[in-house]
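R.M. (postdoc): so does anyone remember the format we settled on? I'll just put the structure tokens first.
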């Protein structure tokens, strides 16, 4: 594992961008399934508190699309100059992009609402490329040199999309790629901080989009974390079991600890809702 990647893995665990549960208490996911870790890549902004504060700024700024990019760009550039964890992450991203993709082959950097903007706006500034700010409603603005204009025709311009995370690439398929293509742009490549390796890379490749990532979530990431004592051996073993067979891990856990879902059903509303979904979806029986 290269030094830059090792430093990034260290930052992922130190900022709790990757959070691993105790070996006897997996996390509930929104799908109604359970698993051993959460990933919140935007915590690389420096901390969970700082990331959540920026999300609030983004939510307020997004109400005015013509000013949104400028407001958020000012925030992330200021943090880039002050926070060593975030700066290291961004410098690693930029260095890797420049080694992987000829910068002259890219005309625009794009990022989608909201968490992509943590990374895409700084990259566009430092690579001196106009930024295409894509909103959830599929509207988009071009931001460059302190000026913002609505996206019209990109006239075949080549676009690199930068995102925090890719899982199944559903946001790309539903929103980011169609927005660029509708504007007659060439959605040439994607670069993410983390690839969860859940099919997104393959989907993008099938769409003709080159897919790149700083970190791919595989065994080596958690082996490094265990070796560095960011997690313990019991947590590592649980993660490997989950990676080998996510559904088998879940069913085995419920069989061994039936009280887990019973307690979840009696817990707070968010947890109880996910436990009910688990049962309704046939992921477990009680």
């Amino acid at each position: 594992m290269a030094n830059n990647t090792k430093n990034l893995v260290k930052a992922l665990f130190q900022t709790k961008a990757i959070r691993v549960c105790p070996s006897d208490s997996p996390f509930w996911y929104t799908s109604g399934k359970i698993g051993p870790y959460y990933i919140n890549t935007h915590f690389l902004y420096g901390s969970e508190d700082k990331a959540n504060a920026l999300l609030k700024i983004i939510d307020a700024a997004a109400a005015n699309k013509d000013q949104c990019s400028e407001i958020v760009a000012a925030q992330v550039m200021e943090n880039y100059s002050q926070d060593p964890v975030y700066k290291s992450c961004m410098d690693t991203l930029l260095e890797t992009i420049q080694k992987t993709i000829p910068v002259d082959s890219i005309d625009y950097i794009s990022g989608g609402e909201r968490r992509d903007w943590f990374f895409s706006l700084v990259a566009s500034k430092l690579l001196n490329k106009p930024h295409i700010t894509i909103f959830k409603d599929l509207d988009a603005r071009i931001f460059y040199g302190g000026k913002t204009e609505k996206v019209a025709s990109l006239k075949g311009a080549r676009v690199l999309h930068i995102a925090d995370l890719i899982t199944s690439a559903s946001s790309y398929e539903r929103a980011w790629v169609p927005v660029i293509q509708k504007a007659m742009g060439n959605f040439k490549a994607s670069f993410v901080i983390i690839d969860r390796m859940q099919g997104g890379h393959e989907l993008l490749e099938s769409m003709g989009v080159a897919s790149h990532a700083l970190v791919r979530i595989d065994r080596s990431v958690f082996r490094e974390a265990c070796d560095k004592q960011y997690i313990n051996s019991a947590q590592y073993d649980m993660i490997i079991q989950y990676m080998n067979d996510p559904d088998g891990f879940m069913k085995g856990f419920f069989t061994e600890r039936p009280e887990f879902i019973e307690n979840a059903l009696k817990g707070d509303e968010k947890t109880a809702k996910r436990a009910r979904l688990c049962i309704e979806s046939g992921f477990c029986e009680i």
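R.M.: ...and that's the designed sequence above, right after the tokens. Also worth knowing: The radius of gyration is 20 Å. The mean pLDDT is 95.
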